[in-house]
Amino acid sequence: KETNPIGYFYSHLKQNAKRRGKDFKLTIEEFKQFCEETNYIELKGKTVKSASIDRIDPTKGYEIGNIQILSLSDNSKKMHQDNADDCPF
Predict the structure, then answer these.
(1) Distance (Å, rounded) from C-alpha 52 to C-alpha 13?
(2) Of 29, 47, 61, 73, whose CB has the highest number of CB atoms within 10 Å?
(3) ∠8-75-18 over CA atoms, to 5°?
(4) How far apart are CA 25 and CA 86, in angstroms?
(5) Which of 30, 2, 38, 33 is nearest to 14 (CA)?
């Protein structure tokens, strides 16, 4: 993690996508460029204002044109809005 943070977080993102059944077409080179352009590694964390990777279109997988940075709080809100139609309440 400390010696290769981009590789570590790329692998983690890819494993989570697989576990959740989401397509993953993002290459390590694309992820590295994304991290450099967005400062993702420095902004990532566990607080509500920390950066997370969001799929812009939740019906699509992880690919370079479908990811963006959102705060953990905003990403959670978006997830609940996207799933509102599935909620029986």
Answers:
(1) 10
(2) 61
(3) 45
(4) 27
(5) 30
* Per-residue pLDDT tens over the stretch 1-23: 889 999 999 999 999 999 999 99
Measured in residues, the chain has a length of: 89
The letter for the amino acid at 6 is I
pLDDT of the residue at 82 = 65
Q: Is 67 left (phi over 0), alpha (psi -120 to 50) or beta?
A: beta
Backbone angles phi, psi at 24, to 5 degrees: -135, 100
Measured CA to CA, the distance from residue 49 to residue 9 in angstroms comes to 18
